[in-house]
Design goal:
There is one protein chain. With 106 residues, the chain is α+β, with helices and mostly antiparallel strands. The chain has a domain of 72 residues: Roll (Surface presentation of antigens (SPOA)), CATH 2.30.330. It is 20% helix and 27% strand. The chain contains three helices and four strands, in the order αβαβββα. Strands 1-2-3-4 form a four-stranded antiparallel β-sheet, with helices on one face. A hairpin with a 2-residue loop joins strand 2 and strand 3. The chain is elongated.
Length: 106
């Protein structure tokens, strides 16, 4: 977190009602991360239709829900009709989530 100099720091102000409404209408990308793995570029170049990439993660482990590339919750897979869904099982601190949205993912 950067250190602010006293002369540059501004007192925190509460957003107005209209600003808050506008912020809450923002659309953000929602990502569910199944697993992660690094591959050599040579392995990626050999990938084709039908290829299977094995991950070192149990199918019983929770999936991560990311907003702005930050994990904000964990969940488990569910079937919703013919679609895939995520049942949230644990959510992080909502204040930290909102703060992370304003930091560009850093």
């Amino acid at each position: 977190m950067p250190v602010l100099h006293a002369e540059r720091a501004r007192p925190a102000t509460q957003p107005s009602h209209s600003e808050l409404r506008r912020i809450l209408r923002l659309e953000v990308p929602v990502i569910v991360r199944l697993a992660e793995r690094k591959l050599l570029l040579s392995e990626v170049m050999r990938l084709g239709t039908g290829a299977i990439i094995e991950f070192v993660k149990s199918s019983s482990e929770p999936l991560e829900l990311l907003i702005n590339n930050k994990v904000i919750a964990l969940g488990e897979t569910v079937k919703v009709g013919e679609n895939f869904g995520l049942r949230i099982t644990r959510v992080g601190d909502i204040k930290q989530v909102i703060q992370s949205l304003g930091t560009g993912g850093t």
